[in-house]
Amino acid sequence: MKKLIYSLSFLSLFALLVSFSNQHEYYVSVTKLEYVESQKSIQIISQIFIDDFEKVLRERYDENITLATKNESKSIDDFMAKYLKYKLDIKINTRDIDFKFLGKEYKDDIVYCYLEIENIKTIKTLEVKNEVLFDIYPKQQNILRTKIYKKDKSFILIPEKNKAVLNFD
């Protein structure tokens, strides 16, 4: 009888753990920003959990959005670009700068969004404000990694401190 109780307890615990396996405990994104001096461009890769991005796009634009499917709507890229332009603000030399949304790809449970800023001759100051997913997850953290003039810097941005500023004078 004890064996049966232990077995049922184990199976119940296992079922509970498996039911939560599709959700992740931490809310984090990673944005890499690199200045490629030879091309006079800033190349940006923003990595966001697919389920989190899908949730925010559903809430903002269309409740029927489903990411990472074979028959994905053509408007998904437009929605992603629109959201990122609203939540990711970049200033170079104190000027607001727009970036181009080049595209995206899915790997495992992450969407990689590729962005670019062209015609950047020099960077004296860089300010990045990243509020991606702050509107749906109050504990969201956005890691920002920069590589400018061969100098690497990293920041953790949270809703209370959503901006990183770098000076290169």
UniProtKB/TrEMBL annotation:
This is DUF6702 family protein. Residues 1-23 form the signal peptide. InterPro entries: DUF6702 (IPR046525). It comes from Winogradskyella litorisediminis. Keywords: Signal. Pfam families: DUF6702.
